[in-house]
């Protein structure tokens, strides 16, 4: 490691992260204890081997992502990278048919924000075991979140924590708003694919993140604190009138359709 690399990595020691992103000081408590969490290392196969057809597919997906730099889809992917602001869950608003964030739907936001820790944790064992380098580390191309790259370099690429979180959010919201299931799961899938567009995850990383998210969602439904918060969110969504949408849903639909 040269001096510049050492300087880049030094500030990261002891910094808590989730899905490769620094966690705010007020981190929510996960619903599931470590021994209750599905083990991603057992749920997903090893990452694609060099020279395999699966690796070729990953490489092609990354090549396509670099070509999308600066596009509307790239802008949406940059927005999807946000996990820790009061508006982070707003990425699911258009699919939900109403604004979903800390201000408009606080109970629903708190449910999603807390469950995000569990969805991300479900990828940790495989991430730590395989320590797969991320696309921008291999191809030298830009990512849509350059400020996060120093953290991402120290966080394994496989499987994707962002994909697990986004897909998990889609499943939770589909439970709460069943009439919007198709739109929500489709948006959750696209949320994960935003990480490929951002050049920070391979396609296979994203696909396997959905697997760990699905197993975690099933496990969460046996947790009394989760089900209580789920009921509170359901009551909130059935009683609070929708507020004005903060997102440009037409632009979001157009960006996803152009991919």
TrEMBL record:
Keywords, alphabetical: Hydrolase
InterPro entries for this protein: Acid_Pase_classA_bac, PAP2/HPO, PAP2/HPO_sf
Enzyme class: hydrolase
Hydrolase recorded as keyword: yes
Cross-referenced Gene3D superfamilies: Phosphatidic acid phosphatase type 2/haloperoxidase (1.20.144.10)
SMART domains named among the record's database cross-references: acidPPc
Family: Belongs to the class A bacterial acid phosphatase family.
The name this protein goes by in its record: Acid phosphatase
Organism: Novosphingobium anseongense
Lineage, uppermost ranks: Bacteria, Pseudomonadati, Pseudomonadota, Alphaproteobacteria, Sphingomonadales
């Amino acid at each position: 490691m040269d001096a510049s690399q050492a300087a880049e990595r030094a500030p990261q020691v002891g910094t808590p992260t989730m899905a490769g992103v620094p966690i705010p000081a007020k981190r929510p408590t996960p619903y599931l204890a470590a021994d209750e969490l599905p083990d991603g290392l057992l749920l997903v196969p090893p990452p694609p081997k060099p020279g395999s057809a699966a690796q070729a597919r990953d490489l092609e997906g990354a090549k396509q992502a670099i070509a999308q730099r600066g596009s509307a889809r790239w802008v949406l992917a940059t927005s999807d990278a946000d996990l820790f602001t009061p508006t982070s869950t707003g990425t699911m608003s258009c699919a939900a048919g109403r604004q979903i964030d800390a201000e408009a739907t606080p109970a629903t936001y708190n449910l999603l924000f807390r469950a995000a820790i569990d969805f991300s944790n479900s990828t940790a064992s495989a991430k730590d075991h395989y320590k797969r380098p991320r696309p921008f580390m291999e191809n030298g191309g830009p990512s849509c979140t350059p400020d996060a790259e120093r953290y991402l370099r120290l966080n394994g690429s496989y499987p994707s924590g962002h994909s697990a979180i986004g897909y998990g959010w889609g499943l939770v919201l589909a439970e709460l708003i069943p009439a919007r299931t198709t739109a929500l799961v489709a948006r959750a899938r696209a949320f994960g694919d935003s990480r490929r567009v951002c050049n920070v995850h391979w396609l296979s990383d994203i696909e396997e993140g959905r697997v760990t998210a699905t197993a975690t969602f099933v496990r969460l439904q046996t947790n009394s604190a989760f089900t209580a918060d789920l009921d509170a969110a359901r009551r909130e969504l059935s009683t609070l009138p929708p507020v004005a949408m903060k997102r440009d849903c037409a632009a979001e639909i157009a960006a996803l359709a152009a991919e």
